[in-house]
Design a protein that fits this description.
Layout lengths: L14 H6 L10 E8 L5 E4 L2 E8 H13 L4 E7 L16 H12 L6 E6 L12 E5 L2 E5 L1 H17 L3 E4 L6 H11 L8 E6 L6 H6 L19 H14 L3 E5 L5 H10 L4 E5 L1 H12 L5 H15 L3 E4 L2 H8 L1
Parallel strand pairs: 1-3, 1-4, 1-12, 4-5, 5-8, 9-10, 10-11, 11-12
Antiparallel strand pairs: 2-3, 6-7
Helix pairs in contact: 2-3, 3-4, 4-5, 7-8, 8-10
Bound molecules: ligand PBG.
Length: about 325
């Protein structure tokens, strides 16, 4: 039966009717809020390209964690900004590193039963050259070494788990890191710490503002020899297969909005819990339009998050987590 018997508008007639037939839902518990932790006390330094996002000292991070718990947000994703960087990213796996201390403090002083504390695992915020692994330089030529980087990343994961992270989330894109991390975590007695792999991570221009926030822009070259080419959906599926075979527990897809087809395809193929990261550039782009009055903030924010859920993500890492949770109540 077709028109005039079938009238799809019947189910759009009132807010109650629309609510009843809504297919996709957003809940605060499916949102994860990224936090950038820096040294000092009382530090709240706004990122110029990310309105409402700050570098925060540990005492300020605690306040944020409390606010997130009160809003019913599902989790925190922590990034560390050390005061000193070096060639091998020592700060990433230091027992008293800034992220390790932040996690210990959150765990000790915030009621976090409803909040999952996730630690990003990468070296780029901690290396002086800004690459995600160990760099081997020979004059003009340089190489980001895979296997030596994996060893340090595994060490970082253990150190973050020992500090109390509920989940470790490797975002470096080295080959073989998941197997190495699983083994290292198990050897350290952290058999119950899940690994959320940024399995499908593209070399994206949309990470630009994050690199200001985390002070992690590569000092030379770019990340194209380790992060994926934006043209490749099939290769993304191979990355995911590989990480599942190596033992990851959850997947994180990144960026989100420019790669919704990749998220959708991953949802069709794989049954692991899967999140997507609405990255810094996606946030900044929307905020730039809000500032000019070109888009309605609340509606555009919720629509962007809904698109990511509809594509198949179970949860979303987003700088809008608090704003969205306030609206969603
Ligand atoms: C670390 C890392 C990055 C992001 C998350 N983890 C930066 C990068 O790969 O350059 C980007 C997050 C964002 O843009 O919001 N490797």
């Amino acid at each position: 039966m077709n028109f005039p018997a079938t009238r799809l508008r019947r189910l759009r007639s009132t807010a109650a009717m629309r609510s009843l037939v809504r297919e996709t839902h957003l809940e605060p518990s499916a949102l994860i809020y990224p936090l950038f932790v820096c040294e000092g006390e009382g530090v709240r330094r706004e990122i110029s390209s990310m309105p409402g996002v700050f570098n925060l000292s540990i005492d300020e991070i605690v306040k944020e964690a409390e606010a997130c718990a009160a809003l019913g947000i599902g989790g925190l994703l922590l990034f560390g900004i050390p005061s000193k960087k070096d060639e091998t990213g020592t700060g990433a796996y230091a027992t008293d590193g800034v992220t390790q201390r932040a996690i210990r403090t959150i765990k000790a002083s915030v009621k976090t039963e409803s909040l999952v504390t996730i630690a990003d695992v990468c070296l780029c915020e901690y290396t002086s050259h800004g690459h995600c692994g160990i760099v081997n330089r020979d004059g003009e030529h340089y190489e980001v070494e895979n296997d030596s980087s994996v060893a340090l990343l595994a060490k970082t994961a253990v150190s973050l788990a020992e500090a109390g992270a509920d989940i470790v989330a490797p975002s470096d894109m080295m080959d073989g890191r998941i197997a190495a991390m699983r083994e290292a975590l198990d050897d350290a007695g952290k058999t119950n710490t899940p690994i959320m792999s940024y399995a499908s991570k593209f070399a994206s221009a949309f990470y630009g503002p994050f690199r200001e926030a985390a002070d992690s822009a590569p000092q030379f070259g770019d990340r194209r020899t380790y992060q994926m080419d934006g043209a490749n959906l099939r290769e993304a599926m191979r990355e995911i297969e590989q990480d599942i075979a190596e033992g990851c527990d959850m997947l994180l897809m990144k960026p989100a909005m420019p790669y919704l087809d990749v998220i959708h395809e991953a949802r069709q193929r794989f049954d692991l819990p899967m999140g997507a990261y609405q990255v810094s550039g996606e946030y900044s782009m929307l905020h730039a339009a809000f500032q000019r009055g070109w888009l309605e903030p609340e509606r555009a924010m919720l629509e962007s998050l809904l698109s990511i859920r509809r594509a198949g993500a179970d949860f979303i890492v987003t700088y809008f987590a608090k704003d969205a949770a306030k609206v969603l109540g």
